[in-house]
Amino acid sequence: MKESVKENLSVMCNIATRVSTLILLVNVVLFKVVFKADIAMSMDDILAILLIGLFSGIMNYPLLALRSVGKVVMLILHCLYFIFINAMVLLFGIHQHWFNFHSVASFAVMEGMIIFIYVIVTVLSFSLDYREATAINKMLDSRKNRQE
Asked: At what angle do helices 43-59 and 71-96 cross, to 10 degrees?
């Protein structure tokens, strides 16, 4: 398997894991701690959360495959990715009865969670990528200095 394919699969798995974990953490904190609600998750809810994570990782592939495009195109791709993620989570949410469109408050909480989790995963991914790129650049600089 090519190294770039392995790297892309690794990134997609990391995103899937981060999304699923953050959904579970946000749900626990929001409903158990903030709202003090005694809500239990069903196996269907857990499966839906895992599928959301999986689809988030898979749908990230175009962003990975097109890393060398310009900033404007990348921004457009990120916006499209967010729209697809948002729509997918809302569809899962409707199916699982996590919210309904008749209650503005439940829809607002759901949308707020989607945005919050998206921002956290994006910032975390960018910061980890930046840290890795910095480490690689330092390593290349040290090799370059040794060769001189």
From this structure: 160
Q: Residues, the chain, total?
A: 148
pLDDT per residue over 95-131, tens digit each?
999 888 888 988 998 999 999 999 999 898 888 878 8
Q: Are 60 and 12 in contact (CB under 8 A)?
A: yes
Q: Which residue has the tokens 């894991």?
A: 17
DSSP 8-state symbol, 32: I
* Contact between residue 65 and residue 77 where contact means Cβ atoms under 8 Å apart: no
The confidence score (pLDDT) of residue 148 equals 67
C-alpha to C-alpha distance for 66 and 61, rounded to whole angstroms: 9
Stated pTM of the model? 0.81
The whole-angstrom separation of Cα 91 and Cα 93 is 5
Cα–Cα distance for residue pair 128/15, rounded to 1 Å: 12
pLDDT digits (tens, 9 = 90+) for 73-99: 888 998 999 999 999 999 999 999 988
SS3 label, residue 31: helix
Q: HSE-up of 89 (CA within 13 Å, CB side)?
A: 24
